[in-house]
Design goal:
Length: 288
């Protein structure tokens, strides 16, 4: 067990190499076969998205990893949570914990879209007018104020094994970069893969500027929660080639600058025409 813990640790095991390896592969993939032509300055996006991601990494290294993992350690030590109330084979508890981590991520993601205040924070991620590997970690730091306590409580309630969290973080660190990449699988391969794991095409729908599509495909790793809970969208209404990404409220070039991304939760965006399409007001786009 100690070997597995060290194996999946991002600092000492394969978590880090998987993550950075995924970035390298996706960057090369995007360069060789990009799925979509950019509609905004790639240089501006990369500089500001990476700056925001770097700021988040500095904070998350001492918050998400420590607080949530510590919650799992304390739950295991003190016998808290459902999985610690019954005798289960370690591998079975590990599998349940892994699935639970993914379901909790789905639920929190859906909450960000259904609550007007939380949407203001989360829309920083969705206001990217293009999507590529830098979008995967384009999140406002305030998201951690919500994600950390909710995830920690869910981890304690289930008694999620610490190893399950380390494994889930290692795997989703890789898949998140791929899912946000400006890449695509062949139609037939995508159809097969998305039965088990969320594909780039499936997640691309989630970044559509069309609100019913934005409010779909919330899953982080597995597509089963979306399918079971009625939030699955197979493809954009007008097809992938015609779809518009981002949010129409934040289409000015200056909206992609680091300082504007940081204050975006506190401002009301100016709606811009996007090919005759205006963003619809909804629970995920209503100003509180």
């Amino acid at each position: 067990m100690d070997f597995l813990v060290s194996l999946f640790d991002r600092e000492t095991g394969i978590g880090g190499p998987l993550f950075y390896g995924a970035i390298l592969v996706v960057v090369l993939w995007e360069a060789a076969r990009p799925r979509r032509a950019p509609v905004s300055s790639t240089t501006t996006r990369w500089i500001n998205n990476i700056a925001l991601a770097g700021f988040d990494f500095l904070l998350s290294r001492w918050t998400i990893g420590f607080v949530i993992l510590q919650a799992a350690v304390v739950a295991a030590r003190d016998g808290w949570g459902l999985l610690n109330l019954v005798e289960l084979p370690w591998w079975f508890a590990l599998g349940i914990g892994f699935l639970w981590a993914d379901l909790v991520s789905y639920a929190i993601h859906r909450l960000y879209h259904s609550n007007a205040v939380l949407w203001r924070i989360h829309r920083v991620h969705h206001s990217d007018p293009d999507i590529d590997f830098t979008t995967s970690h384009r999140h406002h730091p305030f998201e951690m104020l919500v994600t950390i306590p909710l995830t920690a409580l869910a981890v304690i309630a289930m008694g999620t094994p610490p190893l399950a969290l380390l494994m889930w973080w290692a795997v989703t660190g890789l898949t998140s970069v791929v899912q946000h990449g400006n890449v695509g699988l062949s139609g037939r391969l995508d159809h097969v893969v998305r039965q088990f794991i969320i594909t780039p095409a499936m997640h691309l729908v989630h970044h559509s500027s069309h609100q019913p599509e934005t409010d779909s495909n919330y899953g982080q790793l597995f597509p089963w929660w979306d399918r079971a809970l009625g939030t699955y969208c197979h493809a954009p209404e007008g097809g992938y080639e015609a779809m518009t990404l981002g949010l129409n409220e934040f289409r000015a070039p200056r909206d992609q600058l680091f300082d504007r991304l940081m204050v975006q939760p506190f401002v009301t965006g100016q709606v811009h025409d996007s090919g005759g399409k205006t963003s619809q007001q909804s629970p995920s786009s209503t100003t509180p």
